[in-house]
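Hi everyone, sorry if this is the wrong subforum. Our group has a chain we'd like a structural model of before ordering constructs, and none of us has done structure prediction before. Sequence below.
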Amino acid sequence: MSHDGANYRVAIAGATGVVGQEFLRILAERKFPISELRLMASARSAGTRIEFAGKELVVEELAQADFAGVDVAFFSAGSSQSEHARRAASQGALVVDNSSAFRMDPNVPLVVPEVNAAAAAAHSGIIANPNCSTIILVAVLAPLERQARIRRVVVSTYQAVSGSGIAAVHELEAQAEADREGRPVEASVYPAPIHRNVIPFVQAFGDDDITTEEWKMVKETRRILDRPDLAVSATCVRVPVLRAHSEAVNIEFEREVSPDEVRAWLAEAPGVRVVDDPARTSFPTPLDAQDGDDVLVGRIRKDPGNPRAIDLWLTGDQLRKGAALNAVQIAEAVLGVAATAG
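Answer:
Right subforum, don't worry. Here is the predicted structure as tokens:
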């Protein structure tokens, strides 16, 4: 991998999407050492001009892009573009891919740096970024698993519309406006209106009528925690929130664990912040997590029906820790780059 001193030649594939835009913000915020930045997207978006660090960059067409000389390529272009991720890796780039294309490939590490950073060392050019809901879940499960082995996890998600891309954000806004004006509320991104509604369906139905998003949470959680036997059940729900996913989680341990123990363990966990004071009605909401890097955790309490189980609530910005931030942290870990906030 060639680079200019401590600076790297970086490419962002899918640069015009919501996650691509978040990559730009995070690279700037963390002062990632960049000697050259190239932006790539579909033919439809090629030619778009985007400003970064005082320079105007022209978006290239991903399908035609040459990755020779690129050190790090962040992909958020969807699993259908996996051939280009492979091509980038074959030309010498370290690829961090945000799609589902490589997550269950045993030859591709699936990494959350606070949880299993060491796994990244086994990469052969591509590292997979987990699903957004999985990332914020395992950030909380992993420090607990290290203290008291987990037997079972039941999770229900409350997923923001921006997880579906900018079209879903526009649809929620358009539906709210139509409702205010007394016009019919029309749905195209989702199978039902999301305004004033919740939809217990994310992505597509798969095996056993479990959605593909739910299967991702089951399989990816097991893989990241290195617990192929772990019982995980997920119900994924879309809610009319613009940004930041939330999750209600029931965790059964192999021994009895107190809420105070869980709070203490999570208070020490990197990337996690406990916001939990019932006496002051203090708990995290998606608005609290929006634009932040930490996964916020609260409502930590005993399961009244199971002495070995704890209920808790967590929320995190799915475009940051759930996507772009985690990918940048992976690159930082592999390259030995220290983030400089500010």
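For your construct planning: The two ends are 28 Å apart (CA to CA). The CA atoms of residues 110 and 131 lie 10 Å apart.
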